[in-house]
Specification:
mainly alpha
Length: 51
């Protein structure tokens, strides 16, 4: 089973235009050179972060 199919069936698809980026997510995105909205979603979905 693909992760995309599983996410859709669980209702876990996130519209990127509804994501509000926190200051910490912005910091993480700059530090690791990833998109700020991606960093925000990672922080929301993580139980804890390292680094």
């Amino acid at each position: 089973m693909s992760t995309k199919f599983a996410a859709i069936s669980e209702g876990r698809i996130i519209q990127t235009n509804t994501i509000h980026v926190s200051d910490y997510a912005q910091h993480i995105s700059n530090r690791y050179r990833i998109k700020s909205k991606t960093a925000e979603v990672i922080l929301r979905e993580s139980d804890y972060t390292l680094g």
